[in-house]
Amino acid sequence: MATDPLERIERMASENAVVIFSKSSCCMCHAVKRLFCGMGVNPMVYELDEDPRGKELEKALTRLLCGGSAVPIVFIGGKLVGAMDRVLASHINGSLVPLLKEAGALWL
């Protein structure tokens, strides 16, 4: 198991087509999960507040985003998409569905 939080995030993000780092009490996290589920995507969700090392992961995610909000953070095909604003912008401009198809998360 990777001990460095960034290595762990990289490993976790590469194990599934869509990965969401979330907190169970976060309304924006809930919204992004509903968006993907509504599209027929089954994301792997890591609830940072339920992980014993969640605080470490949250700090590492904040560094990845250069100080932005640590949750929700979405990876598609092992690549960082970003926070809710980036996911919604991708959805609105039409680039999210092709990204999901390329990652094997959507077959429509």
TrEMBL record:
SUPFAM superfamilies: Thioredoxin-like. The keyword Isomerase does not apply. InterPro entries: GlrX-like_pln_2 (IPR011905), Glutaredoxin (IPR002109), Glutaredoxin_subgr (IPR014025), Thioredoxin-like_sf (IPR036249). The keyword Cytoplasm applies. It is found in: Cytoplasm. GO terms for cellular component: cytoplasm. Keywords: Cytoplasm, Redox-active center. Pfam families: Glutaredoxin. This is Glutaredoxin domain-containing protein. Residues 18-81 form the Glutaredoxin domain. It comes from Dorcoceras hygrometricum. Belongs to the glutaredoxin family. CC-type subfamily.
